[in-house]
Write a structure and sequence with these properties.
Layout lengths: L10 E2 L5 E13 L2 E2 L12 H20 L4 H4 E9 L4 E8 L5 H4 L4 H15 L6 E10 L5 H18 L1
Length: 163
């Protein structure tokens, strides 16, 4: 059962394949330079937004494939969470069964560092489309509030059941 998609809790999908979401925050680059902001970039209903999502996700997957890790084998999807003039945030979904146990040891810290290093190294290739030129953060959540709300809901349910 998926408790909350904004929290770092393993989710059981319909195919019984546990997944985890990893959020990436950074600066959007295009062809070697910070991307020049256009108003339609911020609207999910525009062709440009779709192009950015597609090339950003493709380049993130390529970056993980080019690294020496097996993270790319765990890749199940990618989405664009938020795009502003100053930053871009995306979500990578990984199948936990495909992750190397060493990657997930110590609260996934090694996994996040590996993803960040892979994306940052790939930026030196300077692909001729959208990619992360600078990675600010790789983490299990982009919002703390939903996690707290989900925890409180779960805790409240447990209190009701036990009393």
């Amino acid at each position: 059962v998926k408790v909350h998609d904004k929290c770092f809790w393993v989710a059981e999908t319909k195919t019984n394949n546990p997944t985890t979401d990893v959020y990436v925050l950074g600066t959007l680059y295009y062809d070697g330079d910070p991307a020049k902001w256009k108003l339609e970039m911020g609207s999910p209903n525009t062709a440009l937004y779709g192009q950015i999502k597609s090339s950003l996700c493709t380049n993130m997957q390529k970056a993980l494939k080019n690294s020496n890790s097996d993270i790319s084998k765990a890749w199940t999807g990618c989405s664009l969470v938020k795009l502003t003039e100053t930053s871009v945030q995306s979500k990578i979904t990984l199948g936990t069964k495909s992750l190397d146990p060493l990657q997930t040891k110590n609260n996934y810290a090694f996994l996040y560092a590996n993803i960040r290093n892979s994306l940052q190294s790939y930026s030196s290739v300077k692909p001729s489309n959208y990619y992360y030129g600078r990675v600010t953060r790789v983490s299990e959540s982009h919002l703390l509030t939903p996690c707290i709300a989900a925890l409180l809901t779960t805790f409240s349910a447990l209190l009701i059941i036990t009393h």
